[in-house]
Queue: 2 jobs
Job 1
Amino acid sequence: MKARQRLLLGVDAGQSITKAALYALDGSEVAVARHATEVDSPRPRWAERDMDTVRKHAHSAISDVIARAGPGYEVVGVGICGHNDGLYAVDRHGRPVRPAILALDSRAHQESRRLSHGATGAAALALTGQKPSLVSPASLLSWLREHEPRSYERTRWALFCKDWIRLGLTGEVATDVTDASAAFTGLRTRQWSAPALDLFGLTDAAAKLPPVLGSAQLAGTVNAQAAELTGLAEGTPVITGAHDVDAAAIGIGAATVGAASLVLGTYSINQVLADRPVTDARWQARSFVQPGQWLHMSTSPAGAVCLEWAVRRLGPWTAAGQPGFAEAVAEATTREDAPDAPLFLPFLYGSPHGPDVEGAWLGLRGRHDRGDLLAAVLEGVAFNHRTHVEALREVFDLRGPVRVCGGGARSAGWTQLLADVLALPVEVTSSDEAGARGAAMLAGVGTGQFTDLEQVTERWVRVICGQEPRPSHAPARADRYRRYLAAVEALGPQRPPESR
């Protein structure tokens, strides 16, 4: 009987889409499936979703990708990554306490302000590598205890997105070092920190924190119920997994010291890997999947999600009546640069300039059309990336090329815009689903298919496109970026404090 081909499965659970991809051991993609999950906003500032639906869509994506691969394959390892921050609270029976709170949420703005300012914020930065953000587990657990005390009491485990999905596959509770370092781990210890919990007034939350395992460590095996729901064989190894931005860096080959990478996704992700932690309020210094390495992430929820927002309101639409995101990028990137083009501030869900700075189109005239507005959105997102990159560039030697992934990386026009705005060369790899590929690569290491990340990266990752900044565009882009920053400073918060 012919031996079945061995495959690795990577699952990437983002803010709104869960992807599952199967890879052969040579790195070739065998099949991919995607399931969208709607974000609920029952109140101003709230962004959440039903946890059972999250798991159901993950199971469906896995089932679909296995069906698409067809017979003749054997899944020998499963890796999972997911969005960080937020809160997936479960009770002692492993059931949801309440809907998941996503990383687009801002309900905990008062708790974040209290924990991130003054002496507490300075101590948090030194102790954990970051100040608590709006969606930090420190801010959200503080909010939950204050506003939903019954939910807080019922919470047995405070999990992250990938941990909830993995719990459904294996029945085992755990997290990994990359997700754990979102709030409560020591900057150098990679383990839960009692001083950090004390600092945030959350000493009683220590018992709610799951065991911390290595990102490529075996965390359990597929149980009988999950096997029936997904099509995976019972007993298939499942490794712990990682924060999706760490997995994406692995998936595009930006997992060596000094490597810089950007994610054009829901969040604007800008990161540099280093062999020592460097703390600064403008980024988070978090543990990477490998000991002795830290991923310095300068981020904000002002990324490509802005294009999704704009297209759902303005179009274009596909023949099937769906939002035409690819068509929108094509329409926007064919526009000629014009000195009177509108500017866009991409702060629909938050900004790196403070929690109350808001989004806007500026400089609109009657002659501008949808293409002009969409082009401004792409440029505004690129300018926000530049804000983060400029901060990192003050400390780290960023000469490029910078690896780019996410939906926008599929567009040559958008990546060229990014290269022009950043004044850095950018590279795109063959990894269409960088997070899922990175999760599968971790599974390959964790199940012994590869000796280490270096080996699997050499076999699985290749650059397919490079963009150089165009000197002829530099003066105009620099001038527009100055105008963009001036607009951010001049506008500031536009609503009265009681409505923010």
Job 2
Amino acid sequence: MPQPEIRTDAGPTSPGPEGAGARRRWWALVVIGLAQLMVVLDATIVNIALPSAQSALDFSDGDRQWVLTSYALPFGSLLLLGGRVADLFGRKRAFLIGLVGFAGASAVGGAATGFAMLVAARAGQGLSGALLAPAALSLLTTTFTDPGERAKAFSVFGVIAGAGGAVGLLLGGVLTEYVNWRWCLYVNLGFALAAFVGGAVVLTGTRRITARPKLDLPGTVAVSAGVFSLVYGTANAELDGWSAPSAWGFLVAGTALLVVFLWWQSRAPQPLLPLRVLLDRNRGASFLSILVVGCGLMGIFLFLTYYLQQSLGYSALNTGLAFLPMIGAMGVAPVLAAGLVPRIGPRPVVPVGMALTAVGLVWLTSLDLGSSYPTGVLPALLVVGAGLGGAMAPAINLATYGVDAEDAGVASATVNMVLQVGGSLSLALLNTLATGAASDYLHRRGHSDAAVQEAALRSYATAYWWSAALFVAGAVISFLLYRRGKVDVDPQGGHAVPA
């Protein structure tokens, strides 16, 4: 049966890093980075604007969860489909269509006149993001093939993926405080326009397909419904508690559907996610590492934001500014990691980054009402940022390194899906543990103002301790899973193998 011709969407393929081809590739990185930043920061920028939006549109506390969940549900559940669509129909085309859809949905959300309109717009953002995010990462994967250039490019991408949430907090604080909450959505129009124009000029077009591509419909239904159930069940757990059927029922169903999906992928003639993408040892270790980082990252932003605002009295803007040194550390660490991984391999580098993050999280447990930013918060943030940057960028690089060209989009989608699902599940679980710690303390000590403040500190510390334990476990498991030594690519099959 004739197979579709696979498009690479890569930039100029000059073997060396010099010349016009290299300049075009680095401009492609700027375009891809802009699009990725837009998608990532939208997960947090609306959090800052939510109280103002709730007041303006007059919706209840129970409804406000859906402003966040309506973005996460389609984004998480349709990522694999978006990645495969990009593989089959063209990554540049998927990238540009995703940008247009995201911008249109953002414009509708910014102009929302009611709760339903805002929720629908957020769902549109999630749907477009599910096409845009894997297309962006797969374009990066196929554009940067030189090992030295690739390490640098993925260092930049890793910083954007990790620090985008903090950028969203800062930008959301500035826009909400000095302009209007609606601009937390309208701002995407600027990102999308710049990325669209740049992408149309810089990104290389695709060859025409020679046969009609086919999608794995049973696999698409199973994985989409499975991830949807996990994210939806997690959202219900935050609202109704883990014992509610609306929580554990969906979580069980989602897990079962994902098991069915993996079973089907081993038998499907044209699988949505070929298991060869997951079963390579280094890529498997990288996906696990990304899951751990995704679980811990959102918890750090959430609980440290609450601590800075509610315990230390920071404004939304000052809270965003407080995260800037962490972003800086996340920018420096991947550069160092990029120089080490080609020489000694990922086995020491990624686990050390996770262990360093765990040290920073333990440091955060010591913060109290008397802690100052320069001597208390800042050093811990620098350690956490260095650890996250050192682990995340190499893991994302190796999760997509060596995949066959026709699998680049779906491998990239898997990276985004693991980050999304990990963040959603961990937020609900950490929030439950933190709330339980605060309730237990208040039950023993009463509800005086001092007790309430101390209970909040106990809840944050509980979240940090559990996150630190997760990173320690991730460090040990990734150390055991990663192959020893440098990583190279098998020229016959494109798979990552020991050098």
